[in-house]
Amino acid sequence: MMREKTVFGPIFSRRLGSSLGINLLPQEGKVCNFDCIYCECGWNKDGLADRTIPSAKDVREALETKLLECSGNGTPIDSITFSGDGEPTLNPEFPQIVADTLALRDRYFPSAKVSVLSNATMAFKADVFEALTRVDNPIMKIDAPTSEKAALINRPVGRYSVEEVIASLERFKGDFVLQTMFLKAPSFCTGDWVSEWMSIVRRLRPREVMVYTIDRETPMKGLSKYTVEEMRSLVQPLIDEGYKIQIKG
Predict the structure, then answer these.
(1) pLDDT by residue (tens digit) across 100-130?
(2) Tell me: domain 7-248, CATH 3.20.20.70, correct?
(3) What is the pLDDT of residue 15?
(4) SS3 assignment for the chain
(5) Domain ranges of the chain
(6) Please, are residues 47 and 36 in contact by the beta-carbon 8 Å criterion?
(7) CB of 104 within 8 A of CB of 63?
(8) Fewest CB atoms within 10 Å of the CB: 23, 75, 76, 86?
(9) What are the pLDDT digits (tens) for 156-184?
(10) What is the pTM of this model?
(11) Which residues partner with 81 through β-bridges?
């Protein structure tokens, strides 16, 4: 299972290039309201040792130190990315941390994008939504077209409604990136699953869709990945309709 410092990398991201990561959650634990069967951070139950949430001050200081280091040694940064050990928007100071990050980005790496990888469950909150609209790439996850199917793949902690998440994402008016994991398993990403998911894409009309598959060890055993060609075949109707689809194997 992966565990990250408050600021880590930069690492090469299949989707974002040279990505400097920001982990707004415990460095030696995991905090998430999903418990996805494919999560590279492992199961939630295995991340209980550390519950320390970094403050906005902690993040700002760690980020400025790393940006100064990267600037000094000529390390390129394409994206400053909120990811890490769980759902970043669960940090109670997320809006302030976004504001600080944008200011530091403008000072040290003005050409870098600021990206947030999120399961979109907190987007209904006014301050979180406003912060997400300020970053370059609000990358919002919908892995399953119904709440019942999300229970199989995302295993939400507490109440979760795909329809309510869709309603939150409609407020972006298409100015966001939709991210979806495609898993090859008997119940996943085939037939009705894909057609129902494509209906959601058509309803939300995101500026870009990121379709990807597993790349690292998963906590649930027996999962298998799609090839890029297989995923392209599944989403071909959307490509034909003019949607910008990024497919990563």
Answers:
(1) 999 999 999 999 999 999 999 999 999 999 9
(2) yes
(3) 66
(4) CCCCCCEEEEEEECCCEEEEEEECCCCCCCECCCCCCCCCCCCHHHHCCCCCCCCHHHHHHHHHHHHHHHHHHCCCCCEEEEECCECHHHCCCHHHHHHHHHHHHHHHCCCCEEEEEECCCCCCCHHHHHHHHHCCEEEEECCCCCHHHHHHHCCCCCCCCHHHHHHHHHCCCCCCEEEEECEEECCECCCHHHHHHHHHHHHHCCCEEEEECCCCCCCCCCCEECCHHHHHHHHHHHHHCCCCEEEEC
(5) 7-248
(6) no
(7) yes
(8) 76
(9) 998 899 999 999 999 999 999 999 999 98
(10) 0.92
(11) 21, 115
Model confidence at 44, in pLDDT bands (50, 70, 90)?
confident
- CA–CA gap between residue 140 and residue 136 (Å, rounded): 12
Instruction: List Cβ neighbours of 106 (8 Å cut-off, separation of 6 or more).
Output: none
In single-letter form, the type of residue at position 177 comes to V
Residue type, 212: Y
Q: What pLDDT shows up at residue 40?
A: 86
- Which residue type does 169 have? L
Residue with the two structure tokens 């027996």: 222
The radius of gyration of the chain's CA atoms, rounded to the nearest angstrom, is 17
pLDDT at 189 over 80: no
Instruction: Indicate the residue type of 231.
Output: M
